[in-house]
Design brief:
The strands form 2 sheets. The protein has a 9-stranded mixed sheet with strand order 1-2-3-4-7-8-9-10-11. The chain contains 8 helices and 11 strands. The chain has 256 residues and is of the alpha/beta class. The chain has a single domain, classed as Alpha-Beta Barrel (TIM Barrel), CATH 3.20.20. The radius of gyration is 17 Å and the shape is globular. It binds zinc ion (2 copies). The site of one zinc ion has 5 residues, from loops.
């Protein structure tokens, strides 16, 4: 069964989707889902993007099945490694995504992050932050949305072109490959052919550097986004020789 491995429900500050809405939509589509609630420790706004993990398991444990897995999306930052590691160690997640959302205490979503700065400068900083986090966040399963910055960057062309950042992207991909981590094919932006053209060389390079597994995730915050563009994600994986997996009890399983 196809598994959409990146879904946000009510425990995520920016989602109003209930677990039942998510399950109903997944059932209609005939896909399984992994709930991956946002945990961005030390987020610039107090109490945003953090949730009570005990409540999460208390409320959702009963839904756990081969159609629903319980994960978390950790916002990676250098000053929260120990606390994030403790969270992963002390809880029985099926799956842990590591993502870069905040750099220098500013959410990449925020336009202040781009103010008076060039794309080169910002994107180099983005990949530097990813590299230094990945070196220490060895307790994640998959790197979330490598193209996250391209969603929000205030540049005329926000796409990430491998050739422009090859040295740094290689470092990111090598760390993942050496540690046998997955890379996420985030499906939010891949319906755009220009985006696809920019991202495919990155996923191909992951394979060339020894990476073998990928997760596919919609990053849905609404039912209608669940499973979105999964046909494209499956094509990307095949084209790049990557095997799509989902995680159960932190162990990867191939999606057939
Ligand atoms: Zn994210
Ligand atoms: Zn997400």
């Amino acid at each position: 069964m196809i598994v959409d491995t990146h879904i946000h429900t009510l425990f995520s500050s920016d989602s109003k989707m209930t677990i039942n809405q998510a399950l109903q939509k997944a059932n209609e589509l005939g896909v399984a889902i992994t709930v991956t609630e946002h945990m961005d420790l030390a987020y610039p706004e107090p109490d945003a993007f953090v949730f009570d993990i005990t409540d999460y398991f208390n409320e959702y444990e009963k839904y756990r099945s081969e159609n629903l897995y319980l994960g978390i999306e950790l916002g990676m930052r250098q000053d929260c490694i120990a606390d994030n590691s403790t969270i992963v160690m002390n809880n029985q997640f099926d799956y842990v995504i590591g993502s870069i959302h905040v750099i220098d205490n500013i959410d990449i979503y925020n336009e202040d992050f781009y103010h008076m700065r060039s794309k080169q400068e910002v994107y180099h900083q983005y990949f530097d932050s990813m590299i230094s986090c990945l070196k220490t966040y060895d307790f994640i399963d998959s790197l979330g949305h490598i193209d996250y910055i391209a969603r929000y960057a205030r540049f005329e062309n926000p796409e990430i072109y491998y050739n422009e950042y090859s040295e740094k992207i290689d470092k990111v991909l090598k760390i993942l490959a050496q540690n046998q981590k997955a890379i996420e094919i985030n499906t939010r932006r891949i319906a755009d052919p220009a985006t696809l053209e920019a991202l495919i060389p990155i996923y191909k390079r992951f394979y060339a550097l020894g990476g073998r597994i990928a997760t596919a995730g919609s990053d849905a915050h609404k039912p209608e986004d669940i499973g979105k563009n999964f046909n494209i994600a499956m094509n990307i994986a095949e084209m790049c020789n990557l095997k799509l997996v989902y995680f159960e009890n932190r162990v990867p399983h191939f999606i057939k």
